[in-house]
Amino acid sequence: MAASGLSRCLSRGPIPTPILSWLLYRKDKPGCSRYYRAAICRKLKVPLAIEEVPTRPIQPDEVRVDVHFCGVNFADILTCQGQYQESPSLPFTPGLELAGQVLEIGTNVSTVKEGDRVISVNNFSTMAEQCIVDQKKLWKIPDGISYQEAAALPVCYGTAILALEQRAWTQPGETVLVTAAAGATGLALIDVASNILQAKVIAAAGSDEKCKLALQRGAKAAVNYSQGNLKEELKKLTGGQGINVVIDAVGGDVCLAALCSLAWEGRMVVIGFAGGAILSIPSNLLLLKNVSAMGVYWTRYQKENFSVFSRCMTSALRYCQEGSIRPYIGGVFKLEEINDAFEHVTQRKTTGKVILSVK
Ligand SMILES: NC(=O)c1ccc[n+]([C@@H]2O[C@H](COP(=O)([O-])OP(=O)(O)OC[C@H]3O[C@@H](n4cnc5c(N)ncnc54)[C@H](OP(=O)(O)O)[C@@H]3O)[C@@H](O)[C@H]2O)c1
């Protein structure tokens, strides 16, 4: 708004607070431009637009981050189609996670400083050149981890660590079945189960190429569930002993076959329904072999149990810095190519983590 516009506004009475703060913030800080590009969902089920949006001043506990990379998650796609468990009000910027550099800190911020390299989880906001987050939701990226690798950690590795360590109590030597195994979360699960927890992973995926990748990334065996009978294959692979831990991201018949394949006192963790069908679990199956079925909704831990959430993030960063885990980046798209990135994921064309390059 030009100065003449401002005086016209003032002559009409009090200015609403958001406009006033924006007007006061118009003086640029070094590195903070007045506008930044962001992916915007204005209407569900239509392609996203890239728009220039005005910056706003940060609050005392907030941090402005210059986004370098942000992860694409299945949840972003579902949210933009109105099919996710959370529905942000329109318009919104999708994106749950980012890796970037601190541009500006609020007056109360003590955890990071300008120039620090950070990752963050911040529901629906990160697919943009800038993102404002509460200081609590930032973790410093240790030396030796690139921005790209760091962007692949929060959601996938956070979920994998939570599901395998905290929920399923996976023990060394146990058999872990991972479905959608060559996907972003799938490969993270294989990495954590094999290399941190010393479990034996059986990967299940929708093509021979995806099975091959899962084997290259640490699975001991793989089953292509688009061919043959998953339950029979799992019986053969475990010598009839069954699976100790199932982490299922697909749902429907795949989930049922996995549940039927659990061993005595096996644990199933449901993390998603990428196939679209939600299984109604026959509870007799739980009783017969004393098995447990549970769920994981990773981002909800931010609200319900932040210390567990934060511990998963710091573990992921530590495992990565130590070289015990290696995120697999399967595709890098530019911010402007966000609709192509979404399409690749929904068409099952991607393997590993897909990230958006924002620079
Ligand atoms: N609960 C949580 O906190 C949490 C956290 C992260 C992810 N998730 C869930 O985990 C799943 C995987 O997410 P992601 O971000 O890692 O995505 P992703 O694995 O990159 O993509 C989804 C995979 O699901 C499989 N799939 C099966 N049926 C499909 C269908 N009809 N359409 C598309 N894909 C299908 C595909 O593998 P195949 O071709 O091998 O079948 C595909 O590669 C999603 O359901 C997501 O919501 C949940």
Short description:
It comes from Vombatus ursinus. InterPro entries: ADH-like_C (IPR013149), ADH-like_N (IPR013154), ER (IPR020843), GroES-like_sf (IPR011032), NAD(P)-bd_dom_sf (IPR036291), Zn-ADH-like_protein (IPR051397). With 359 residues, this protein is of the alpha/beta class.
What does this protein look like?
GO terms for molecular function: oxidoreductase activity. InterPro entries: ADH-like_C, ADH-like_N, ER, GroES-like_sf, NAD(P)-bd_dom_sf, Zn-ADH-like_protein. It contains 13 helices and 15 strands. Helix 9 links the parallel strand 11 and strand 12. The strands form 3 sheets. Strands 3, 4, 5, 6, 7, 14 and 15 form a 7-stranded mixed β-sheet that branches. A 6-stranded parallel β-sheet has the order 10-9-8-11-12-13, sandwiched between helices. Helices cover 33% and strands 25% of the residues. Helix 5 crosses helix 6 and helix 5 crosses helix 12. The two termini are 27 Å apart. Bound molecules: NADP nicotinamide-adenine-dinucleotide phosphate (NAP). NADP nicotinamide-adenine-dinucleotide phosphate (NAP) binds next to helix 3, helix 5, helix 6 and helix 13.
Keywords, please?
single chain; 359 residues; alpha/beta; Quinone Oxidoreductase, Chain A, domain 1; Rossmann fold; 3 domains; seven-stranded mixed β-sheet; six-stranded parallel β-sheet; disordered N terminus; binds NADP nicotinamide-adenine-dinucleotide phosphate; Enoyl reductase (ER) domain-containing protein; Zn-ADH-like_protein; GroES-like_sf; oxidoreductase activity
